[in-house]
Every structure is written in structure tokens, then in C-alpha cells.
């Protein structure tokens, strides 16, 4: 059971609608070449965005539910994953329900060490939305397009059926917000560096759950995932 890491997984990434942090999972993989993993994750996050100058979008809250699919490319060394699902986004008068999310990512084990491995996980997401709301205290229709990158790295410890992982994390947000009243804005994250930590347990053979917490200077997230490998 030493290599049974219940989280396994990831799935296409876009789940973070580029407005909030989303589930990352372990920085290493235990999938063998040709082995698959399917599962689901839930995340709740809050994010502040910088529109340039003194204009900001504060307290953008997201709740996402995602299906996840992963496949191993190299035994216990590399997997790729995809994800799909929906998210609800809220910020004061702005309320976006049931937004479709899709994305992709990879997980690479850089150092194998028995129960303690090291690696990196990266996921990339894209989100677009036309709506209306308050921007710099002015009510205006807007067209929002965002590209989000999350990268986590560090150790993953697997004593028996248990898993513990975490380390530094980077989030980069790049995008555009075009408004009818105020013109156009470049959108960026307010803080790009942070950390994350998670843990889990294998409930049955090839079936496990994990939970994790993430944070940067201007964003936080709580997330959980269930995964089955076959």
C-alpha cells in the first residue's frame, strides 16, 4: 500500500474559472503508463484581481464542482489530466451561475524516494464571460476573458494508506475586461506567490479522498477530491 495515493488525479484544469484557486492535488503521480483515474472535486475560493491603476475587483467568490480524468504516460513519473464541470461566481451585484469550465494540466514526479517523493503539478485554465455589474463603482456591461495558471511543487509523503503533501504555489492571472462605460482594463492577480497543503486516505483499493487548503496574499481556497484508479 505504500504507493497507494488516493488523490491521484487531476483532470483537465479549467476549473478555476480564472477567478479563483481550484483543487491542485499532489505534486507527484502514482499512475502507471496507460493507467486511468476518474473522480470529482469541489472547491470554494475567494480572489482579488487588479485592473490597473487604483481599480480592483475584490472578494470574487467561486464554488466549483468538477469531473476529473487523468492518464499515466510514464510509470509513477508523469500524467496528464483534464477536467470539466461548472462554477458559480459571485461578487457584490455580479452573480454568474452554472458557468461551464474546462481545462488541462500535468503532474510530474521529479524525485522518487520510496514513501517520500518530490514533484510538480501545473494546470492551465481559460474563462470568458459577457455580463454586467459594478466596475470601479460604475454599473456597466462588460466582456471578461481570463487565462489562469496554477503551479504547485514539493514533497508527497505516503505512509501506508495515508497521504500528506504541500509546498510553495504560484498563481498567475492574465486577461482583459472590456466595458461599455469605462473602457478596457488589463486584469492580473494581486498576489502571485503562496503555499498549499493537503492530505488524504485510501478508503478501498484504488479509491481515495483528499482535502487541501491554498493561500496567497490576496486569495484563499478550500478543496476536496475523490478519485478512483483503474
Folded structure, characterized:
This protein has 230 residues and is mainly beta. It has one domain (36-229): Lipocalin, CATH 2.40.128.90. 0% of the residues lie in helices and 71% in strands. The protein has no helices and eleven strands. It has strands at 36-50, 56-74, 78-91, 94-111, 116-135, 138-157, 162-179, 183-189, 193-204, 207-216, 219-229. Strands 1, 2, 3, 4, 5, 6, 7, 8, 9, 10 and 11 form an eleven-stranded antiparallel beta sheet that branches. It is elongated. It starts with 35 loop residues before the first strand and ends with a strand. The model is unreliable at 1-18 (pLDDT under 50).
Summarize this, please?
With 230 residues, the chain is an all-beta fold. Helices cover 0% and strands 71% of the residues.
Topology at a glance:
Layout: E1 36-50, E2 56-74, E3 78-91, E4 94-111, E5 116-135, E6 138-157, E7 162-179, E8 183-189, E9 193-204, E10 207-216, E11 219-229
Antiparallel strand pairs: 1-2, 1-8, 1-11, 2-3, 3-4, 4-5, 5-6, 6-7, 7-8, 7-9, 9-10, 10-11
The H/E string reads EEEEEEEEEEE
Main sheet record? 11 strands, antiparallel
Tally of alpha and pi helices: 0
**What spatial form do the alpha-carbon principal axes imply?**
elongated
Spans of at least 5 consecutive residues whose pLDDT stays below 50 are: 1-18
Question: Regarding CATH, which class?
Answer: Mainly Beta
Number of strands: 11
Structural class: mainly beta
CATH architecture heading: Beta Barrel
Helix content: under 10%
The number of domains is 1
Mean pLDDT: 81
CATH superfamily: OMPT-like
Amino acid at each position: 500500500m505504500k504507493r497507494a495515493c488516493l488523490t491521484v488525479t487531476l483532470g483537465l484544469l479549467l476549473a478555476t474559472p480564472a477567478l479563483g484557486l481550484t483543487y491542485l492535488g499532489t505534486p507527484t503521480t502514482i499512475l502507471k503508463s496507460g493507467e486511468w483515474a476518474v473522480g470529482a472535486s469541489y472547491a470554494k475560493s475567494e480572489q482579488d484581481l487588479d485592473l490597473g491603476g487604483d481599480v480592483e475587483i475584490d472578494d470574487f467568490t467561486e464554488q466549483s464542482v468538477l469531473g476529473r480524468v487523468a492518464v499515466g504516460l510514464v510509470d509513477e513519473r508523469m500524467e496528464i489530466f483534464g477536467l470539466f464541470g461548472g462554477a458559480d461566481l459571485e461578487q457584490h451585484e455580479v452573480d454568474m451561475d452554472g458557468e461551464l469550465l474546462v481545462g488541462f494540466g500535468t503532474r510530474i514526479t521529479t524525485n522518487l524516494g520510496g514513501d517520500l517523493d518530490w514533484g510538480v503539478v501545473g494546470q492551465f485554465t481559460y474563462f470568458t464571460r459577457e455580463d454586467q455589474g459594478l466596475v470601479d463603482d460604475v454599473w456597466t456591461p462588460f466582456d471578461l476573458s481570463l487565462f489562469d495558471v496554477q503551479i504547485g511543487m514539493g514533497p508527497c509523503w505516503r505512509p501506508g494508506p495515508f497521504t500528506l503533501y504541500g509546498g510553495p504555489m504560484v498563481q498567475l492571472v492574465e486577461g482583459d475586461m472590456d466595458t461599455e462605460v469605462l473602457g478596457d482594463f488589463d486584469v492580473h492577480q494581486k498576489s502571485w506567490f503562496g503555499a498549499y497543503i493537503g492530505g488524504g486516505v485510501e478508503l478501498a483499493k484504488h479509491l481515495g479522498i483528499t482535502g487541501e487548503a491554498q493561500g496567497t496574499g490576496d486569495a484563499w481556497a478550500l478543496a476536496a477530491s475523490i478519485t478512483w484508479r483503474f
